[in-house]
């Protein structure tokens, strides 16, 4: 991974320059969280942590960088000297990749010298917002596909090479089984898949010849694209002819791909034609601008589809192309004295949670059935053996106070830097994510009108937030 230390908004450096001069002994804790779920869902799949860890461990500034900074003429010589000698001294805690996370709960925290921690904001948000967005979209598509494989086909429509490559990684975390992107396949050890383009068919004198030549080169991987001319009258009959020839030569065909037309009707006819010809195991793959609504509709119609190839709607999360994760100051610390910080806005929705915190997943006692999350101050001890008074973390909630009892707890934020980071394969992260999803109430996972999943805050945290809001109001007046 290349050095990304300059992938930072200008004002981050300007603030860090001032912090170093005015607050040189101040440590700070920043929280990364989001407020709204894309596509009116109920949760986001956390992704991108591995790239964040790689980026911060390689955070440094070259001689060329320092020369450029001097040419800008904005910052002190002492600050530029410190950048040239930069040593990373922040600690990061995060929820594991693949974990479903809910609005307002920290999915990553950064603690360290305030000037250093401020410099990470843009880079951290760039990585986490993008990969979490794509992983979440992939989860929705996987849910709609109801066990049928999702193949990621979006490289040509992604917003640049990094979005294509790391978008593939995120898509696999969210449930995709393979990719057409060879770069991502190699880099992340993801299975690669694909058939052919229409240009292959068009380049030969006729469709049958094109299919035969493909089968010649790939006798054990013959998935044929059947919609270049006429799916039912040409494509499938010619595919069946080649499939019979392959079988006679000792090979079994993979199947067909349909990329246009009324795929529900075409897939139904194709299935019958393939079955009647003696190829019930031949798979039917469809592609062409699919999303979760289209997949759901096709399967509700009973379309006999085995695989989905999904491009632009996945790799760009086209229906909800932004995850607005934020990076907010939660506390400062000088000589061991912690001072909680809060952002107060005219909109209660933007009220932040102060202090250093931990996030817990709550389970019905003796089970792995999650029923809520709880945000607590880091100094609190959370036990489910006695009654616990909590408040809804959503400042707009009407059903604000609750009492919980008889539950098991699991902390979600774990040390990742400078601790030994457990680097898992994307397949391991995907499997862990699916296990985490299975713990959630089924109603929260629906694609349309999902049930809300409660995220509570402790009484101590609620009171701290209330006190800081009151102080902020007094100061404002």
UniProtKB/TrEMBL annotation:
Alphabetized InterPro entries for the sequence: Aldolase_TIM (IPR013785), N/Namide_PRibTrfase (IPR041525), NAPRTase_C (IPR041619), NAPRTase_N (IPR040727), Nic_PRibTrfase-Fam (IPR007229), Nic_PRibTrfase_pncB (IPR006405), Nicotinate_pribotase-like_C (IPR036068)
Domain Nicotinate/nicotinamide phosphoribosyltransferase: residue ranges: 150-339
Top-level taxon in the UniProt lineage: Bacteria
Segments forming a coiled coil: none
Pfam families to which the protein is assigned, alphabetical: NAPRTase, NAPRTase_C, NAPRTase_N
Entry annotated with the keyword Signal: no
Keywords in alphabetical order: Glycosyltransferase, Ligase, Phosphoprotein, Pyridine nucleotide biosynthesis, Transferase
EC number: 6.3.4.21
Domain Nicotinate phosphoribosyltransferase C-terminal: 356-465
Residue span(s) of domain Nicotinate phosphoribosyltransferase N-terminal: 6-129
Summary of the function given for this chain in its UniProt record: Catalyzes the first step in the biosynthesis of NAD from nicotinic acid, the ATP-dependent synthesis of beta-nicotinate D-ribonucleotide from nicotinate and 5-phospho-D-ribose 1-phosphate.
NCBIfam families: NAPRTase_put (TIGR01513), PRK09243.1-2 (NF006695), PRK12484.1 (NF009131)
This protein's name: Nicotinate phosphoribosyltransferase
Species in which this protein is naturally found: Lactiplantibacillus modestisalitolerans
Organism placement in taxonomy: Bacteria, Bacillati, Bacillota, Bacilli, Lactobacillales
